[in-house]
Amino acid sequence: MLRIAVPNKGAISGPAMAMLHEAGYRQRKESKELVLVDPANEVEFFYLRPRDIAIYVSSGKLDIGITGRDLLLDSGADAEEILQLGFARSTFRYATKPGTAAGPKDFAGMTIATSYEGIVAKHLADEGVDASVVHLDGAVETAIELGVAQIIADVVETGTSMRNAGLEIIGEPIMRSEAVVIRRTGAPADDPKVQQFLRRLQGVLVARSYVMMDYDCRVEHLERAVALTPGLESPTISPLHHEGWVAVRSMVAAKEAQRIMDDLYELGARAILTTAIHACRL
């Protein structure tokens, strides 16, 4: 069986389980379940702390895992990302009290508090900055107020908590993170079970991003209509009973669907419908 690590809690856990459900995999019924076997799909899920997943995968005990890019890089584990999942996006940045520093070049001799020591240490080394890093397991905003550090480095979504603590975000982002699928570095890239799993998740990503659009169109307007709805390969076009009319079916980006419907209507298309896509393979 394919052995997969899944976060048991945190910002990635819920969306990851929802995606796996959409991909046709069984999910645990209780949060206390640590292992779930899905014999129909020949998969075994292991629910682990998000920070530990990269370590388990790099050891070879588990084949692949779902975790955050930030957690993967911070762990220093011998693992690599193989698919971006498009959720749990965040930006990792420095912050400090106004007037303390403008960016990493000003950090020399200072102390940076963070929950992501590995990422920060590497970034400082890449920037050629000689500064100390102290590891804290959360609420790093208070480190400056308590005199533990002059700078903090943390995940920023809106920046509200930092502003509430009297801090300002400085410098360029250290990194941008999101949920990713990972495997051990050097693992066979053509493992058929892994490839099937990735195809299922890719199918979910596409299904979430596209809708199926159907409409009726006059033949003389068809080329202009098809230019608006080219599809992934090309649209499906079928003649209607009324001469001079055709039915068109095509996949379109969900975020563009309303605008495309307006443009088709102006072109003379009618009976314009969109339907959700629940699963697909490309």
TrEMBL record:
Catalyzes the condensation of ATP and 5-phosphoribose 1-diphosphate to form N'-(5'-phosphoribosyl)-ATP (PR-ATP). Has a crucial role in the pathway because the rate of histidine biosynthesis seems to be controlled primarily by regulation of HisG enzymatic activity. HAMAP family: HisG_Long. It catalyses: 1-(5-phospho-beta-D-ribosyl)-ATP + diphosphate = 5-phospho-alpha-D-ribose 1-diphosphate + ATP. This is ATP phosphoribosyltransferase. It holds the Pfam family HisG_C. Its main location: cytoplasm. Pathway: Amino-acid biosynthesis; L-histidine biosynthesis; L-histidine from 5-phospho-alpha-D-ribose 1-diphosphate: step 1/9. The lineage of its organism: Bacteria, Bacillati, Actinomycetota, Actinomycetes, Kitasatosporales. GO terms for molecular function: ATP phosphoribosyltransferase activity. It is found in: Cytoplasm. Residues 207-278 form the Histidine biosynthesis HisG C-terminal domain. It is an enzyme of class 2 (transferase).
